[in-house]
Amino acid sequence: MKNKIIVLGIVTIIVFANLLFTNSGCSSPATTLGTTANGITNTFALLPIDIVVQSQKVADTFSWKSFIAMNWPADINTCGPDTSNGNTILNGKGPVVWETYLSSGQVFVEAPATPSQWCSNNNALTSLTHLPQKVQDLARKTGVYRFIHRISKSSPHVLGQAVGGPLVDQNGRFARYEVRMNVDEYNFITTKGLWNKAGQNKYAADSTTITMPAGPTTFGPNGAMEFKAAWKVLGKGDDTSKFYKIKAIVYNDDSGDPSPGENPVTLGLVGLHIAHKTALQRNWVWSTFEQADNLTRSFYNANCDTCTPNLPLPGSNYKELNPDGSPINKPTQVKRVNAVEDPFADSINIYFQSLLKGSVWANYKLVSTQWLFAETMTPSFLANSVQETYVQGPHPASYGGFPLRIDQAYYTDSLYQPFAKGISASCMGCHYVSTLPALPTKADFSFIFGEAH
After folding, report:
1. Biggest alpha carbon–alpha carbon distance for the chain
2. How far out from the chain centre does Cα 347 lie?
3. In 3D, which of 240, 228, 236, 265 has the Cα closest to residue 250?
4. d(CA 342, CA 371)
5. In angstroms, rounded to a whole number, what is the distance separating the alpha carbons of residues 394 and 9?
6. Which residues contact 205 (CB under 8 A, 6 or more apart)?
7. Packing angle between helix 345-355 and helix 56-70, nearest 10 degrees?
8. Model confidence at 153, in pLDDT bands (50, 70, 90)?
9. Angle 431-435-438 (CA atoms, 0-180°, nearest 5)?
10. How do residues 264-300 score in pLDDT, each as one tens digit?
11. 184: which DSSP letter?
12. Which burial class, exposed, middle or buried, applies to 433 when counting CB atoms under 10 A from its CB (0-12, 13-18, 19+)?
């Protein structure tokens, strides 16, 4: 009897593991992703569950599966993937799934307003009430209800990237950013009252740590997820066929005036962070993708030998365009400072790009996946060239001489400051120091709470 119980237990574990592995990116990509002779199938529309087997190759496969699922064409009535009528990611059309999720600006609203309802009349694309009046008027006049105004991924109130100011493309236009969250994170934030400062203060009085949902919980089926997208205005010299594109209104935060010149504009996606807190990855999985032309064309001039790489704009009062719509600033010469410590990224990219051949998504690549491998942050350093342009260095990569282990229960050196000079970019290392605004309460690797009013 005892032997039968043991055998039954082993079989149960194997069956459960197989179910997880089918949606976790384990083994080789070709044997775990439900591929057929025809390539992409509807199984790719399913978000992967977790990184079950501890391997960088598995982690990178998990990232690519997440990228495909989240960039699958969306059903705007459910804010989930649309697999009807042969719809697949290969058609390159949007909105895609993550674009139907609420933006941080629709959740962290100023009283007496309250957060937008989840997936209400495709609220994520058409909500106007939180926007400046001139932008609302332009939207109604043009019929374009997509708005990209941030020139910082860290905060709508920061004029530029987290450090270093705006990023300027080769046409003299600012890169622009947006931040969105999935339903699990939305439910957690709204249920806990964390969308405003009063609610955060109340929460902090009872707890020293925020713990976002991980894996299937009462807040949702997948665990908390955040998306940080980088866009560029497509123009002279850009091969528009190689970008996922949207039509959007761009405007300036300081005055709320729509930007001079053509508006709405066509934007191309140039970078995408996907952060996902899973049951096995309590410090989140950090997947970062870039468009293939970032470092050869869009943000780099191969003919400029005298261009200083990754040089921030001088000053702090940044303006993008003259009144006639002509650019004011010189382009940023973007280069990658440190090679990514990921021996599998190139081969994984080739595999998935081949599956996506013929679509715009074949022009995107995984930079790498940062995750906890045997309790160690792996790879140690990771930067997206268009989202962490000015915090990549130095070379070789360094924590500034401070021993550092990232763990919710153990932090080896409180002197570590991720934005200090001499510290190289690290997704997990940077986000580890996040807290509620002006409070010591740790914010579970998320800076999104800093947008509260």
Report:
1. 84
2. 22
3. 265
4. 12
5. 51
6. none
7. 30
8. low
9. 140
10. 999 999 999 999 999 999 999 999 999 999 999 999 9
11. H
12. middle
Tell whether pTM > 0.85: yes
Residue holding tokens 């894996």? Answer: 215
Euclidean distance between CA atoms 383 and 393, whole angstroms: 10
φ, ψ (nearest 5 deg) of residue 59 = -60, -45
Copy the structure tokens of residue 166.
């705006």
CA distance 213 to 94: 28
DSSP 74: E
- The pair of three-digit structure tokens given for residue 346, joined into one six-digit string: 């190139």
pLDDT of residue 12: 35
The Cα 82–Cα 122 span in angstroms is 14
172: its two tokens: 């003299």
Per the document, the length of the chain is: 453
Q: What is the pLDDT of residues 393-418, one digit of tens each?
A: 899 998 877 656 665 444 444 556 77
Instruction: Match 């790879």 to its residue by tokens.
Output: 379
Sequence-separated (6 or more) residues with CB below 8 Å from residue 380: 341, 397, 426
Residue type, 316: S
φ, ψ of residue 329 in degrees (nearest 5): -105, 150
Contacts of 430 (CB under 8 A, 6+ apart): 162, 391, 418, 419
Alpha-carbon distance of 37 to 155, in angstroms, equals 45
State the DSSP code for 421.
T
Three-state SS for 298? helix
DSSP secondary structure letters along 204-220? HHH-SB----BSSBTTB
Only one residue has tokens 């004029």, namely 159
CA-closest candidate to residue 187, choices 130, 119, 125, 121: 119
